[in-house]
Ribulose-phosphate 3-epimerase (Alkalibacterium gilvum), 217 residues
Amino acid sequence: MKIAPSILSADFANLKDDIKKVEEGGADWIHVDAMDGHFVPNLTFGANIVKAIRPHTELPIDCHLMVENPENYVEGFAEAGADYISIQYESTKHVHRALQLIKKADVKAGIVINPATPVSLLEDILQLVDMVLVMTVNPGFGGQSFIPETVNKIKQLAKLKKEKGYEFLIEVDGGVNASTIKECAEAGAEVFVAGSYVFNADDPKERIQTLKNAVKK
Ligand code: DX5
Ligand code: ZN
């Protein structure tokens, strides 16, 4: 299992230190949430933040693009040092083309589905992706409550993965804490994004360990 703290909830004035803190605390990946104010009603950052943090961490950088027409940004994120680029299924008419672009840039490609988007729509691209990210909240903000109905989609994906021998990782994002992480892990999730649970705490390291232990039990 992998824990991917989302820097959306980090202290932007001390980003380098916050990244160091979670890295030392046992984080496996760093999750970067790019938002454009169109696909989601919030603005964050672009590839420049990946470029800025790349020299300060050894961990894989997991980029979640909540932007319209993500194909326009793939090259920039790849050049900045992204290890994973995940695009929202709902964000482009050309999902297949966008995924091909990511692969061509030699970056792992992920597809993300919102709570209202069914797994069945992914049927024709599952063999192409390295990761499927199931949103467990509606994207746009940190600190929202986990939507329990999304767990069924994790189960469906885990079943398909097993039946068809696919190799994609199953990631979950939104409202992950010591209790919701258990349900997600039992359903088959393998990568867990956590923003506010990790960073809105005095000791992010302790929070990461609590998440890891919750899945072990
Ligand atoms: C939400 C983002 C998440 C966010 C999660 O749109 O994709 O990565 O940072 O935050 P929490 O863990 O606080 O729900
Ligand atoms: Zn995210």
